[in-house]
Specification:
By secondary structure, the chain is an alpha+beta fold. The protein has six helices and eight strands.
Amino acid sequence: MAEYQMQELTLPNEEDKKILYPRMKLWGQVDLDYLASHINYASTFTPGDIVGVTKALTQAIAHEMAEGHSVKIDGLGVFSPSLGLRDGFERESAEPGGQKRNVMSICIRNINFRADKEFIQETGRYCRLDRSKWKFRRSSQRYPAEQRLKLAQNYLEQHPLMKVSDYCELTGLLRDAAARELKRWAEDPETGIDYTGRGSHKVYIKRIIQQKMP
């Protein structure tokens, strides 16, 4: 049986307005080997067959997306590629004569997945929920957003880089909220905050202001 808890959420751009929404408690993660063993009990396929077909399907989906296609798997959902800039490249400017980006600076950054309604309904049919006695931790609200930004800016004046964990310690935000907010700061050139690296190696740095030639 799965468990849920009502979690408090502050609405975007409305610091004082909060709502409650249900969130499932995830107790762990299963991998392909586990699923293959599970499927094996109810079919004639061996775990090796299942793993092999899944990996072949993954490669086929990747190839089609690399060719510019989205991929629909009936009963599962739609996969589509998402582009971004390679590390170390600044965004293209919309201003006349501004910086332009070419193919060497653009890469696949993520894969988007939109689940089929059938897949969602199938999950719902299996799901039995109970309210959890376990409480979600909440991010601290001791600083408003403007003050958290100032804390980040001051930190980068004194340190060459800032990790998400550093921002958590500075502001009291939990990791997910801190990562989302840092991403928002880095997307706004006016904050003076930029980033380098990707994934678990992503860190935040002071934005370098490029001087225009007279």
